[in-house]
């Protein structure tokens, strides 16, 4: 999670007009819930499937997507670039 957050901040520092999301599932969701980061929480898209599986609810600062996998596929089809952190 720390690497993804740092990557996002570096991208936005160098390209302030860039659109950046951090899509998280599985252990990434747990890490996002355990460590809040005000500068990047608004960039997170947490997997609702994972949240349901672990019995957790995303705090208001985190956006959710029904499925992280589907979100990644759809975003890539729409021209987004995927960077694995």
Summarize the structure.
With 85 residues, this protein is an alpha/beta fold. It is 45% helix and 12% strand.
Describe this structure in words.
It is a single chain. By secondary structure, this protein is of the alpha/beta class. The protein has one domain: DsrEFH-like (Hypothetical Protein Ychn, Chain: A, 3-Layer(aba) Sandwich), CATH 3.40.1260.10. Helices cover 45% and strands 12% of the residues. The chain is built from four helices and three strands; from the N terminus they run H-E-H-E-H-E-H. It has a three-stranded parallel β-sheet with strand order 1-2-3. Strand 1, helix 2 and strand 2 form a beta-alpha-beta unit. The longest helix has 13 residues. It is globular. 24% of the residues are buried. The model has no long low-confidence stretch (mean pLDDT 96).
The beta-strand count equals 3
Instruction: Summarize model confidence as the mean pLDDT.
Output: 96
First and last CA, distance? 8 Å
Strand numbers in spatial order across the main sheet: 1-2-3
Low confidence ranges: none
The largest sheet, given as strand count, sense and whether it forms a barrel, is: 3 strands, parallel
Structural class: alpha/beta
- Radius of gyration, taken over Cα atoms and rounded to an integer in Å: 12 Å
| Oligomerization status of the protein chains | single chain
Based on the model shown, name its key terms.
85 residues, alpha/beta, Hypothetical Protein Ychn, Chain: A, 3 strands
């Amino acid at each position: 999670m720390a690497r993804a957050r740092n990557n996002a901040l570096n991208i936005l520092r160098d390209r302030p007009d860039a659109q950046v999301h951090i899509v998280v599932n599985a252990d990434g969701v747990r890490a996002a819930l355990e460590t809040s980061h005000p500068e990047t929480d608004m960039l997170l898209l947490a997997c609702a499937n994972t949240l349901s599986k672990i019995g957790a609810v995303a705090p208001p600062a985190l956006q959710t997507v029904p499925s992280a996998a589907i979100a990644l596929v759809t975003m890539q089809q729409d021209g987004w670039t995927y960077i694995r952190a």
